[in-house]
Amino acid sequence: MRPGYLHKRTSRRCRNGDPSAVILVSEPAGLTDPRSAVSRYLVLLPAPEAEWAALPPEEHEKGMRAHQRFTRELREGGHSVVVASPLTPSAQGLTLRPDGHGGTTITEGPFAETAEQIAGFYLIETDDRDGLVQCCAQLASTGDFIELRKLAEDGDDISGDAPDAETGA
Predict the structure, then answer these.
(1) Residue 28 confidence (pLDDT)
(2) In the 3-class helix/strand/coil scheme, how is 121-167 assigned residue by residue?
(3) pLDDT(81) > 70
(4) CB of 25 closer than 8 Å to CB of 10
(5) Per the CATH hierarchy, to which homologous superfamily does domain 6-29+37-150 belong?
């Protein structure tokens, strides 16, 4: 546990009934130095929900062990898990969109009809992006799909343009 931080363990359970390893962490006011090299990354876990639901219990257990190992490797690598959690099925979500007339259209269910939906996430704080990528690669090697995204900070380009391959800018 990180000194000076508020830690709260929850008793949430995954869809398959297994207890999840959800730890909510909040930092005390004024602790984060905006000049520090620490960045936050969102580890998104897209998954084909129907396939996951159809897997036998031993495959779910194997997946839970892989995530326990991932969390341990993050900690051992000096990365901080700010919050991590599975998400409820996309069918239980809501989509909110502008209706074109100044109001909002609210629809039950996922935003897009795709085979994969975001099934869970980790919010990681680290000053070692390469080490985080190595931890994510290890988890991906066990069968998980991962999308790793840096949270935008002041000065980051959020235009959506890919960086120039030669200059990196």
Answers:
(1) 39
(2) EEEEEECCHHHHHHHHHHHHCCCCCCEEEECCCCCCCCCCCCCCCCC
(3) yes
(4) no
(5) Dimeric alpha+beta barrel (3.30.70.1060)
